[in-house]
Design a protein that fits this description.
Elements (H helix, E strand, L loop, with lengths): L3 E6 L2 E6 L2 E5 L10 H23 L8 E8 L6 E9 L9 H8 L3 H7 L15
Antiparallel strand pairs: 1-2, 2-3, 4-5
Length: 130
């Protein structure tokens, strides 16, 4: 997969891949979330995709289900130390499936990559003007 990152103006930095564009921006005047907020949102939304798929495969209603993600950062470094994902279900959601929802959310590809991070290589290249 290849993504192209460009700088459309101001503090905006956008990522383009396939037919999609993810827009990011920086405060104080931000027209989009920060790159770090998008990163954090990818954790909860990835878990959500797995929970949604689990429910759809079993014909379980998803109305009233939501995931609340809580970020705990170190006051010293500002680095994220812990992320809690709480899957909230309505009272009518079958008790027997609740542990399976937790297991399913833990299969999230974003979470797995954080637990086994990739190596990074950053380079520069000179391109000829078009």
């Amino acid at each position: 997969m290849e993504m192209v990152i460009d700088f459309p103006g101001g503090s905006r930095v956008d990522a383009h891949f396939g037919p999609h564009t993810v827009m990011t921006d920086q405060p104080p005047v931000a027209s989009a979330p920060t790159p770090f907020a998008v990163f954090l949102a990818s954790i909860g939304t990835c878990a959500g995709i797995y929970v949604l798929g689990f429910c759809k495969q079993r014909g379980l209603p998803t109305e009233g289900i939501r995931i609340v993600q809580r970020i705990h950062s170190s006051p010293m470094s500002g680095m994220v130390e812990k992320i809690d994902l709480e899957i909230q279900v309505p009272e009518s959601f079958p008790e027997k499936y609740r542990p399976s929802l937790i297991h399913t959310a833990q299969l999230c590809a974003v979470k797995k990559h954080l637990e086994n991070p990739p190596k990074f290589e950053v380079t520069t290249a000179v391109v000829e003007p078009a």
